[in-house]
Amino acid sequence: MVDADNKIKIEKIKGFRDHYPEDMEIRNSIFTEITETAEDFGFKRIDFPSLEYLDLYKLKSGSELVSQTFSFVDKGGREVTLIPEATPSTVRLLTARKDLPKPVKWYSFPKVWRYEEPQEGRFREHYQFNADLFGIDSAKVDAELIGLATNILDNLGLSGIYEININDRNLLEYILNDLNINDVNNAFLIIDKFRKISRESFIEMFRKLDANDENINKIIDLLSEKLDMDSLSKKLKKLLNNYKNIDDRIKRIQETFEYISYYTKSSINFDFSVVRGLSYYTGIVFEAFDVAGKLRAILGGGRYNNLASLLSGDDIPAIGFAMGDAVIELLLKRQNLWERNIRKASYYVCVLNDVNSEYPITIAQKIRKTNKIASIDFTGRKLPAQLKAAMDYDYSIIIGNDEIKNNSVSIKNMKDGDQKILSFDDFIKSL
Amino acid sequence: MVDADNKIKIEKIKGFRDHYPEDMEIRNSIFTEITETAEDFGFKRIDFPSLEYLDLYKLKSGSELVSQTFSFVDKGGREVTLIPEATPSTVRLLTARKDLPKPVKWYSFPKVWRYEEPQEGRFREHYQFNADLFGIDSAKVDAELIGLATNILDNLGLSGIYEININDRNLLEYILNDLNINDVNNAFLIIDKFRKISRESFIEMFRKLDANDENINKIIDLLSEKLDMDSLSKKLKKLLNNYKNIDDRIKRIQETFEYISYYTKSSINFDFSVVRGLSYYTGIVFEAFDVAGKLRAILGGGRYNNLASLLSGDDIPAIGFAMGDAVIELLLKRQNLWERNIRKASYYVCVLNDVNSEYPITIAQKIRKTNKIASIDFTGRKLPAQLKAAMDYDYSIIIGNDEIKNNSVSIKNMKDGDQKILSFDDFIKSL
Fold this sequence. Notes:
CATH topology of the largest domain in chain A: BirA Bifunctional Protein, domain 2
CATH superfamily of the largest domain in chain A: Bira Bifunctional Protein, Domain 2
Distance between the termini of chain A: 51 Å
Number of helices of chain A: 17
CATH architecture of the largest domain in chain A: 2-Layer Sandwich
Oligomer: homodimer
Strand content of chain A: 15-25%
Mean pLDDT of chain A: 92
């Protein structure tokens, strides 16, 4: 890492990102919109270490995820990992406290890390918003959690740009059993690849699970289209030997769909090809996709009722979702929505070269007291150079010895060029 | 990690912290106060990876710090580390962009990690606020950076609770040379330990640098008391063979002290025992301490004019400081200032058991649209249990079939117990 000039050149690591101010202002504004929407739903923020025992993910996350961790042995001999996802830590916090009144509604916004090949919308480090609701297993709660997800996207200006695709792993498991496919875990792994691999490979993989071609074709038919509630029932009536047995499940999904519609006007579909990669999901699973279908999932989640009991023995029903910062950034940029919403008024205080007084600081401190931005130019450079630096600010203030003598403030509106001289007191009143 | 009941029990790692909502609300409120103060000074936020090449810290941070890193070899064979501090990454971002107009004023609030023995106010993982100012080397800018540090503490309510202790490593180096001690780097390391080791060990260590006892005593005298500007000059006139040579340095410190006083009324002292552990500092160094003197440094920083040239060849003067979240938390708790400042109005929507309607969601969504908090109780439990859960909220709303029939809202102020029934429209207007 020593270059031709014999200078040490140290770059950032592949798959990681730097964020400069122009970028960070927008990110902060968007992150705030997301967390405020969660707060407005009564979700409360938690935080946990970036480093956990690797064993926490061996429990139930799935072997693909564990193989993609940034794991290592620390100086104390512990096998640890940078967290690849937030759910196991969240459940660890939940089960460590027996005094928490249920339901528990939590969100977090940690960095997570995965050692994967970087590509569009996927980095080795990203921020991931998570929301989880513990203690109730009902359609209304499933709908509330998905309603939060849709309201976050709606509040970011994405109404009509995304759709929610929902599946029920319970229902899919029932159908697979009905079609004499009993190795459900492996079937899910193959179904998860349905849209990424060729039809031939898909059939080949299902044949290895001892499925006959008639049933494989039924599965392909099932996975091939998005359904509304009516067509879901019709399709299943035709497909299954005993539709009666799943009446309750269909009713629950119907209620979930109905209740989601109270939160959003966005398109909600049933999609049997949505199974999610993580192996801890037990019921409903869902993803948000851009309707143009060009990007990876914007967010995804589902019900996971068994994870808490693995950690503590207590059965605590749970549903949650996660949204990384990378795909949403791509989508907002594509829609020209990647911009800062709120901005404090800002003042750039130009100080003429011969000024040697506390006056510019006094003015800046008064501005800051009103929770506005004041940046003093201490370079001593010529005024035009200072005014050039003031271009990004709402106002520039010029302080020379005249202003100090007269206890006045020369102020220029940088948007319309309007310029005036105010007494110090009038300026303070104007803030 | 399997306990007596044959349950897998996975704890958090030693030296790491979990944060539950009651804690996070306060932390967020305090973190926001800190970042808003920086924004009000015209500092802009940046962000960088949590993982960097270990080489970045071998450059200049000092060997003690490098030995305390969470470093490892990743799956691609890279020698990487969880970042132990923010300054090298910040300078990496600075030197990677040649187009940035100077001065550059940046802040960041990353997690940093050190493999040290945990103790009061010190964890293996903590959040650290950083502010850095690049491009100008002057007393006014030194004072602005320290002014920001004092204003952050003042805005947190700590005026009068802390003091700032300042040293100048340039000046100290000159004095050491004047006393015939030329191994300045090792002398700094010993001086850094002055308040932590016995007088005997201190003398013994300095003897190994070939210092005679007369000069060692002069150094001890110098390190033993905090000084104002007058006593600093007097002391140095008496101590040094040629005081004239440091006239300029004394003037610069004088100007710095004068300018700091324009930002804060807090006590500012000169203290030769402040040298800071990191080896990249080149000029002024400073720390904030609680005046009761019971805690570790609240924050610390200094001028480091050579780090950018090491990374890029460009000379870019720099000054910065860092403040961890642990000591400030201890101090705020001790002062009963560990509390949330701002709070949105919050509504708890109780839903009576026989209600099966979108009405509670409609009301909650209206509340959320006005950027207030609305939590719906979907448990279906009895009203008293729901009202108990509403205790932390400003208002509870009760929705039964009567309210739905009359299109009305029963609302209870949870502070004073005041209860009334409003029409739906009047309720919406009241928001």
